[in-house]
Design a protein that fits this description.
The protein is α/β, with parallel strands linked by helices. The chain contains ten helices and nine strands. The chain has two domains: 46 residues; 193 residues, Alpha-Beta Barrel (TIM Barrel), CATH 3.20.20. 47% of the residues lie in helices and 13% in strands. The longest helix has 22 residues.
């Protein structure tokens, strides 16, 4: 049973107990308010932190004893930037996972093919990545995921197994949409490279607690990331770690069908 259903059941039982108790002696309204507040906070935490596995089981890191990490890139492909990113990866002989937005895949199919041809894998990151994705019904979420799968399959002749929720937000509707059709991927190192514009600060953030098994989140459209990435790769090697492709780090197949 998903964790959110367990919490919901416990909450209902506690409320029922308080109501029954209230028949015998008055229960202060603050007790009800406290229980409801705790319930809301747990739900909020589960929504915002994929690593809690509250709504959707998600892989957010590899084995902690590993000597490897994986790097991932969200929101691409981005014309003019993904090409630069691929050049950096190729020069340094690093393979990564790109969580692509469906509408960008349709715009730049040749770039998606290049990502694949150069040894990287492609995951599903929804079709529109709209600000309201988390407010959609499970049916509409599922439609976006399927549409993105179709876009990827039309180019690679294979459908992705890896899915990363937009913004990393999960909820019950996403639980239904994902079902057992995907391996949901989170991260253990979030770069915030779309917010941090200073390369020095960005480098400090992504390296200060880096360890084996980490899954690092970057974005195709970040200029600061492009500036930092070569140095980051060298740093990883200098501390005795290596960068491997996500599927190899976590031991999961990145695609559900092959050509």
């Amino acid at each position: 049973m998903p964790r959110y259903k367990i919490v919901n059941t416990i909450f209902l039982l506690v409320v029922l107990f308080l109501i029954l108790l209230d028949w015998q002696r008055t229960v202060d309204w603050k007790v009800y308010a406290g229980v409801i507040s705790v319930f809301i906070l747990i739900q909020l935490y589960g929504t915002l932190y994929m690593s809690s596995n509250f709504f959707v089981p998600a892989i957010c890191s590899g084995n902690a004893e590993s000597t490897s990490i994986a790097i991932t890139f969200d929101d691409g492909p981005v014309d003019g930037k993904t090409q630069k990113l691929l050049t950096i990866l190729k020069v340094n002989e690093v393979e990564a996972c790109f969580f692509c937005i469906g509408q960008n895949i349709d715009k730049y199919p040749a770039l998606v093919q290049q990502i694949h041809n150069e040894g990287h894998i492609i995951g599903n990151h929804s079709f529109y990545h709209g600000w309201n994705f988390d407010l959609l019904s499970s049916k509409k979420m599922k439609a976006e995921l399927s549409k993105t799968d179709d876009a990827i399959e039309s180019i690679l002749a294979k459908r992705p197994n890896f899915f990363r929720p937009p913004y990393g937000v999960t909820n019950p509707n996403l639980t239904k949409a994902v079902g057992k059709d995907y391996t949901t991927i989170g991260w253990s190192v979030r770069s915030f490279d779309t917010v941090i514009k200073d390369p020095v600060k960005l480098m400090m953030r992504v390296t200060r607690e880096l360890k084996g098994g980490d899954i690092v989140l970057f974005h195709d459209n970040s200029d600061a990331m492009l500036e930092v990435l070569p140095e980051f790769i060298k740093h990883v090697q200098s501390i005795g770690l290596k960068i491997v492709r996500l599927d190899r780090l976590i031991g999961e197949n990145p695609y559900t069908t092959e050509a």
